[in-house]
Amino acid sequence: MTANRGQGATTETRTDSSTESVTERVAGSPGVDDAVIESRDLKVFYGDDQALQGIDMEIPEKQVTALIGPSGCGKSTYLRSINRMNDLIDVARVEGDLYFHGKNVYDDDVDPVALRRKVGMVFQKPNPFPKSIFDNVAYGLRVQGKDDGDVEGKVRQALERAALLDEVEDQLDSSGLDLSGGQQQRLCIARAIATDPEVVLMDEPASALDPVATSKIEDLVEELSRNYTVVIVTHNMQQAARISDKTAVFLTGGHLAEFDDTSKIFENPESQRVEDYITGKFG
Ligand SMILES: Nc1ncnc2c1ncn2[C@@H]1O[C@H](COP(=O)(O)OP(=O)(O)OP(=O)(O)O)[C@@H](O)[C@H]1O
Ligand SMILES: [Mg+2]
């Protein structure tokens, strides 16, 4: 895919050795103080079809932002644009700007692989590797060459943060595929956070799970937001209301209808269409 940007901003590279190229600052970039991700007039096309219509949004750091809306309105497309997963879809084309820490991730000098280390992703269907529980979590550390130090400590910490350690402590050598669906999803979350990303993107992570497993994932998402910025797509309105700080409501055609504090969206939305959607009148 060719990332076709809007008007290019001039970059001003900070000489901060703790940052990689993806966290360089853009001079005069838009945004509020605690926004870690900002999209400006972000459009995504699949061939001739436009899936997102110029989305402006600012996602705050270390909070949970929920993306809701009817099927096909572009929630997954928006999520994938944040860590350039749309690059992997041949017909996808992105226009506009998507800033991560003020740096446009579609700039030519951004390495998508490095970006995805900082912006990890968890999918709808749990997808553990056919490896042991330990190796699933250690995988990213090994790929990144971070397996020189205390791998076991890092694996255990990730499993603990994913609220799975207590359940698997005595079976770290067993296959990840032998876990229940809910445990597999928490294993995938452990795998995603083991490499210490800043942002965790989740695309309907609980939709295939039973109520008990779902509630564990919900508790976990709230817990994760102490350390990570979480952006989560959900079809479950109550779930969005329960676990998120901000909610973005997308509507058919790829429009962002409203983005605000979750309490505002669910108690007193600005637009009638959003009210109709969240009260179940359509979608
Ligand atoms: N890989 C693709 N190739 C072509 N069109 C796509 C592709 N992925 C999504 N689209 C189209 O883009 C639009 C938005 O899709 P997207 O998957 O982002 O919606 P969504 O809000 O996540 O829907 P759902 O709730 O069903 O998951 C839809 O019209 C869809 O058909
Ligand atoms: Mg989707």
CATH topology: Rossmann fold
Helix content: 25-40%
In sequence order, what are the helices and strands, one letter per element?
EEEEEHEEHEHHHHEHEHEEHH
Question: What radius of gyration results from the CA coordinates?
Answer: 19 Å
Contiguous runs where pLDDT drops below 50 for at least 5 residues:
1-32
CATH class: Alpha Beta
The tally of structural domains comes to 1
CATH superfamily: P-loop containing nucleotide triphosphate hydrolases
| Spatial shape | globular
Number of helices: 10
What strand order characterises the main sheet? 8-9-10-5-11-12
CATH architecture assignment:
3-Layer(aba) Sandwich
Structural class: alpha/beta
How many DSSP E strands?
12
Q: If you average the pLDDT, what whole number results?
A: 88
What's a concise summary of this model?
It contains 10 helices and 12 strands. With 283 residues, it is of the alpha/beta class. It has one domain (11-278): Rossmann fold (3-Layer(aba) Sandwich), CATH 3.40.50.
Task: Describe the structure using short key phrases.
single chain; 283 residues; alpha/beta; Rossmann fold; 6-stranded mixed beta sheet; 4-stranded antiparallel beta sheet; 10 helices; 12 strands; disordered N terminus; binds adenosine-5'-triphosphate; binds magnesium ion
